[in-house]
Specification:
A: alpha/beta, Rossmann fold, five-stranded parallel β-sheet, globular, B: 297 residues, alpha/beta, two-stranded parallel sheet
Chain lengths: 165, 297
């Protein structure tokens, strides 16, 4: 019983170097499906992060504005409409233009494999397709934390070359 | 601290990135920064979940911005008691992003600090005032005393309820109804709103010379907003509200002095092993007041 209690504490209490992040989850463009975005938002919240959800149909400018005003460190973009190839690079450019180059960008939704390289080149650090376990997104964020501690590039404005997938 | 001074100057000149960073720095800084705004205008908005507070604030923002005000909203949502994380989604309903540079919305997780008051929220309001934000709104989930404490940090309180919810009875129990300056019954487009408003008016009339207004609004249709705003603008903070506000500010400052004392973990450990008494612990923790820790800007 006592042992179980301590195991419980170990699982529930964040370790010493754990720090919660402010994360914006956004739905760019004309796309009305947000179940995936909400599942990710919930998983991040349950891992102790502060998650700001933008709601549906935001323009790239609006998303950049929200990331700025919320002073978020991470931006997750969910798109299922097929417009990822134009919207996501626009958002990445917008972030760099607004001095938000330290923000870490990841994407999810319906994104064909042939588009991955283009997204990485625009500054996206991870792309999560359908069926990804939510724990993988948390593993990605842990990796980002470690890389940030070692001052390795993770942000949308940092040097390219590292991505999760 | 030098960083806060620099960010403040940049934010005053209209740099949005610096404003956003400034709020984070104020919330996280070890010392308590002091700002000296000429005047601050703050409104606490509280009411039961689902009563339409965010949508109503969105409408008020539009109205204020079109009449030349600069509106900043601090939207509080609860934190999960288990993970400590939060899902902050108030801004979805505020639609404030297309109002351009004269509106600003920041989501804040409540309940990370004891008493449920987000760290340094008063200083954040002061800094926003110094940066030229003329209408500052603090939105809380008005379900309990701690949320109400946050609303009472503002100079005036707007209580929002929906039709036929019966929640206003709960508000009455918690004393929120007594302390609200303006009461809005939202969703006037739905049946039952008028009778809800009437019930509240009756309840207010029981205490004699209570002439507070109960205003019917429909946030979704945009009806009654002008009347609501003029009622909010014309209400003078009451003496009871001023006293209550000061009391809450004092308690909140005290909390933050204790919590931010570097010796706190050591003292808690000593309390656990019984090597000091509670009153000794309070004396030690309170001493940091003499050390200052305040920085003026």
């Amino acid at each position: 019983m006592r042992e179980n209690f301590f195991r419980f504490l170990e699982v529930m209490l964040p370790s010493a170097d754990y720090r919660n992040m402010r994360i914006v989850i956004a739905k760019p463009g004309l796309d009305g499906h947000d179940r995936g975005a909400k599942i990710i938002a919930r998983a991040l919240r349950d891992a102790g992060h502060d998650v700001i959800y933008t709601g549906l149909r935001k323009t790239p400018d609006e998303i950049v504005g929200i990331v700025n005003d919320e002073d978020a460190e991470v931006l997750g973009l969910s798109t299922l409409s097929g417009a990822h190839d134009s919207l996501i690079p626009m958002i990445c450019d917008g972030l760099r233009g607004a001095s938000l180059g330290k923000v870490v960008v990841f994407a999810g939704g319906i994104i064909p494999e042939r588009d991955l390289d283009m997204l990485y080149k625009s500054g996206v650090r991870a792309v999560f397709g359908p069926g990804t376990p939510t724990s993988e997104v948390l593993d990605f964020l842990d990796e980002v934390t470690i890389r940030n501690q070692n001052q390795n590039p993770t942000g949308v404005g940092d040097d390219l070359g590292w991505n999760w997938n | 601290m030098r960083r806060i001074g620099e960010l403040l100057e940049l934010a005053k000149s209209g740099d949005r990135r610096s404003l956003s960073r400034l709020i984070t720095e104020i919330s996280e800084s070890e010392e308590t920064p002091r700002f000296q705004p000429n005047s601050t205008w703050t409104l606490g908005v509280t009411g039961p979940p689902g009563s339409g507070k965010s949508t109503l604030i969105g409408q008020m923002m539009k109205h204020w911005v079109s009449s030349g005000e600069r509106v900043a909203v601090l939207a509080l949502d609860p934190s999960s008691p288990i993970s400590g994380g939060s899902f902050l989604a108030d801004r979805i309903r505020m639609d404030g992003n297309d109002l351009g540079k004269n509106s600003f919305v920041r989501s804040i997780p409540a309940g990370k600090t004891p008493g449920g008051i987000p760290r340094r929220i008063i200083q954040v309001c002061q800094a926003l005032s110094v940066c030229g934000w003329t209408r500052i709104v603090i939105e809380t989930v008005g379900t309990g005393q701690s949320e109400f404490r946050i609303a009472s940090l503002a100079d005036r309180i707007l209580l929002v309820d929906g039709p036929e919810r019966g929640d206003i009875i709960q508000a009455e129990k918690a004393g929120i109804l007594e302390l609200a300056d303006v009461i809005a019954i939202n969703k006037s487009d739905l049946p039952g709103a008028a009778s809800s408003a009437q019930n509240i008016r009756i309840s207010l009339s029981l205490s004699g010379n209570d002439n507070r207004e109960v205003i019917l609004v429909s946030a979704i249709e945009g009806e009654g907003i002008e009347e609501l705003i003029s009622s909010i603008e014309s209400c003078e903070p009451k003496n009871t509200t001023i006293e209550l506000t000061m009391r809450e500010r004092l308690l909140s400052e005290w909390d933050s002095i204790i919590v931010s004392n570097p010796e706190i973990d050591e003292i808690i450990a000593k309390l656990c092993d019984g090597s000091i008494t509670m009153s000794k612990a309070i004396q030690t923790l309170g001493k940091s007041i003499d050390h200052g820790g305040d920085l003026d800007f």
